[in-house]
Design brief:
The protein is mostly helical. It is built from 8 helices and no strands. Helix 2 (24-38) crosses helix 7 (140-164), helix 3 runs antiparallel to helix 8 and helix 5 packs antiparallel against helix 6.
Length: 189
C-alpha cells in the first residue's frame, strides 16, 4: 500500500496537464503550487520531518501537528503574497530542518501543544517562501491549494514512514539524523 501511494504521488507530481483546452489556468495554478515544495530539498525534508515528528508523538499529534503546520504555512503564504518583509527566511527554513531532524533523531517527547507551536513557527517561514514565489499570472488561491496539497502529501509520507519504523526506533532516529545533517549542509551552503 505504501509503495502504491508513493507511486501515485510521484506520478501526479511528474505529470503535466494538457493545456490545449479552456480552463487550464486553474490546473496550472494548482500544479505550479503543487510542484513548488517538491522542487526544494529544504521544503521536502522539513515536511517529511513534521510527519516523522508527529509519528514519534503518536495519538492526536498524528493529525494535529501537521494541521498546525499547514494552517500557519497558509498564514505565512499570505504574509509573503502581501509583500510584508519577514527577515532571515532562508535561515529559518534551514534551521527548521536541523531542529526537526534533531528532535526526531534524539527521540524527544513533546506535548502536542508544544509540538504544534514549534512547527507553526517554522511553517511561517516555509509559507512565506511559497507566498513570495507565486508566479505572475497564477492565482494565489489556486497556487496555495497546490502547495497545501503537496505539503499534506509530504507530511503523510513522514507519518507513514515514522509509523512503519516505530518498532525499529533506530531507523526513525537515523532518518532524523540524516535530515539534521542535511539541514546543516543547507545552512552552510
Amino acid at each position: 500500500m505504501i509503495k502504491r501511494s508513493i507511486l501515485i504521488a510521484t506520478s501526479v507530481a511528474a505529470s503535466t496537464p494538457a493545456l490545449a483546452h479552456t480552463g487550464h489556468d486553474a490546473v496550472s495554478g494548482v500544479l505550479a503550487g503543487f510542484v513548488h515544495p517538491l522542487t526544494g530539498v529544504d521544503h521536502v525534508l522539513a515536511m517529511v520531518s513534521v510527519g516523522l515528528f508527529a509519528a514519534l508523538l503518536g495519538g492526536r499529534a498524528l493529525w494535529a501537528v501537521p494541521a498546525s503546520f499547514v494552517g500557519m504555512m497558509l498564514i505565512g503564504g499570505m504574509i509573503g503574497f502581501a509583500g510584508i518583509e519577514v527577515p532571515a527566511v532562508e535561515i529559518g527554513i534551514a534551521v527548521s530542518v536541523i531542529i526537526l531532524g534533531a528532535i526526531v533523531s534524539l527521540g524527544w517527547s513533546w506535548s502536542v501543544g508544544a509540538a504544534m507551536a514549534l512547527v507553526g513557527i517554522f511553517a511561517v517561514f516555509h509559507g512565506y517562501a511559497h507566498g513570495v514565489e507565486i508566479p505572475s499570472g497564477v492565482g494565489a488561491v489556486l497556487y496555495s491549494l497546490g502547495f497545501t496539497l503537496a505539503n499534506v502529501m509530504l507530511h503523510g509520507l513522514g507519518v507513514a514512514f515514522g509509523t512503519i519504523t516505530a518498532r525499529q526506533a533506530h531507523a526513525g532516529r537515523l532518518a532524523g539524523a540524516a535530515v539534521a545533517a542535511a539541514g546543516i549542509v543547507l545552512l552552510i551552503g
